[in-house]
Amino acid sequence: MTTHRGSRSVPTARIGNRHPLSLVLITLTAVSGLVDAICYLGLGHVFTANMTGNVVVIGFALAGAPGFSVIGSLVSLAAFLAGAVAAGRLALVFRDRHRVPWVRTAVWGEAVLLGIATAVAFATDGTPPYPVIALVALAMGLRNGTVGKLAVPDMTTTVLTRTLAALAADSRLAGGTDDRSVRRVIAVVAMVAGAVPGAWLVLHHGIAWPLLLTTAIVTAAAIGYREGE
To answer: Transmembrane stretches, by residue range (predicted)?
Structure first.
């Protein structure tokens, strides 16, 4: 989905790296690094943003590998799918309106879900982990479903496999034009920039404080997002 009917905004396929929507998606990419650090290191080796990794983890757990949880991964997968369904419904609600209220609503939804997860984490210290896993995965499903429909090139916010492959395949070394290399590198750097403090906070302070940080960042993104409406 490149733009909504009735939108006067720039089609998503043509937005630049400094466009407000690009800046929001870069911010959310950094949040994904935080989220993966929180959930993998603090909630039993479960992914909530990266479902490829989560499905692989389910395989590890089914094979009896120590330290992996079938239940936690299945909870994450189910909640993620529910969030993606909600994203599809939300896109239908806003299909005849400008892009901004749609994106803002989705980002606010993510912020609220992360805020609830933060409150639960402070109250329970993530024990048992399943409520926090479900809430965070629901938020990530809502975001992934929305980002998928936005279809901004090289801005998936949660996975970098195709981004890295495209970065190499389109490079001058491979005979390409390198025309989107800056955006792709920014996405990689943003993910790492979120993962590093996320891992440090989990290792030294548990899961609640880094979850609070993710909530604050996503809330700021929702408040700050503006385009011509």
So the answer is: 21-43, 55-85, 106-124, 130-152, 182-201, 207-225
Provide the residue ranges of all domains of the chain, joining segments of one domain with +: 17-44+79-224
What stretch of H or E contains 77? helix 70-93
118-142 per-position pLDDT tens digit: 999 999 988 999 999 999 999 999 9
Residue 199 has pLDDT above 80, yes or no: yes
Element spanning 36, H or E? helix 20-42
> What distance in Å separates the CA atoms of residue 49 and residue 174, rounded to the nearest whole number?
31
Confidence check: pLDDT of 4 > 90: no
How far apart (Å, rounded) are the C-alpha atoms in residues 144 and 149?
9
Token output for 77: 């997968």
Domain 17-44+79-224 in this protein, CATH class: mainly alpha
The per-residue b/e assignment along 122-159, b for 16 or more CB within 10 angstroms, e otherwise, is eeeebeebbbbbbbbbbbbbbbbbbbbbbebebbbbbb
* pLDDT tens profile 201-215: 999 999 999 999 999
